[in-house]
Each structure stands twice: as C-alpha cells, then as structure tokens.
Specification:
Layout: H1 15-36, H2 40-62, E1 77-83, E2 90-95, H3 143-147, E3 149-156, E4 162-165, E5 171-172, E6 191-197, E7 202-207, E8 214-216
Antiparallel strand pairs: 1-2, 1-4, 3-6, 4-5, 6-7, 7-8
Amino acid sequence: MITQKYMMKQNAFTMLELVFVIVVLGILAALAVPRLERDLRQEAADTILSNIRYAQHLALIDDKQKFNDASWQREFWQFKVESCGGGSGLFFSIGSDMDHQGDLDRNEVALDPANGKPMFWTNTDDCSNGNESDTTISKNIFLTKRFGVDTITPSGGCTTQHIGFDHLGRPHAGFSGSTQPDYASYLTEACIYTFTLKTGESFQIQIEPETGYASIVGQEKL
C-alpha cells in the first residue's frame, strides 16, 4: 500500500509585508491626526461669515418696506453680536426689530437653518452654562462658549456690533435709531469686524458697501 502525503499550502504574510503595512498605517495616521484637531479660529470665521450672509439673504427675500412708517428702517434684517449677562461671553442673533424697541425679541429672530431653532438669547442672561438647559434655542449662537471668541472690534464704516441689510441687500450701520426713511445709515465705507479669541488669535470679516459682499480678510476668494 502506497501512502501519499498531501501537503497543504498555507498563505500568510511575511515579516516584510507586515512591516510595510505598519509603516503605511503610520503614515496615514500622521496625516489624519492634524485634520482631527479643531481649528477654532477658522470655524468661528466660517460660522460668522455664513450668518452675516444669511442675514443679507433674509433681507433680500423679505423685501421690508413700509414707507408710511417713519421708523420702518429699524426693521432691516441684521446680524448682531451682544455680550451675555455677567460678562460670560458673546453671542449673536439674526433678526428684524419689528416693534422698533431696539432689541430682538424671541418672535423677531430667525430660525437656525441647521436645527430649526430660534437664534435667540438675552443680554441679561448668563450664557456660560445656563443655556445648556434651554433646548428650545439654537446653541450655535454662543461665540465664546463654542469657539472662544472673546471680543469684537468694529472699524471702517461701522461703529457698532450690528450690521443690517435693506431690501436690495445693501449694508447699513446705525439704523436702529432711524426716525425717517432717508437711508442716512447707508454704508459708504467697508465695514470691518475684528474678532479675537481667548488664545490671542484673531480674524477679520469685511463687508463691502453697496453690494454687501462679506468675506474673511485674507480669504476673499474662498
């Protein structure tokens, strides 16, 4: 009786192949880690820029005009940055001062496109922790808590922390006290807002007169 031995061929990685795979994974990990780290400065700049453009968009589609009301220009859609109560940071709102009282009430603000919640807070309430329990408002408006943005400095054509847009999308500054529709608040010089983070980093948003085109200074083509 002849006994035949059958040798089964087994497939396996060689040591060289294993080393090669480990090296490749190490390279991929090295490239991926920086991308996982949050660039708060860029995130803040992108968020603010998109919301200024959102305010202008709402102005264009709403077409607010009430020529029989001497104070109607107070209703321009605006992007407004305010300080939280107790010096607990900054937040922003987008809205239209329909009652001409100089502030934005809950029923006067826009809904956040990201979550459908009102972009609302009051400048008398602490927003470092107190906002956590309020699930009815958008948390995306808290600039200090989300990104560490700690100050805003207006320059150029604007001297206040809010910018508004008329029915043609043109930018206005100082319109909140308007008593006659003479377009005296029309922006004739580029408005520049400088935002500074707690880390000392800063960025600028520039809004052009006439067109209302907003951009991050140094990233105008993005």
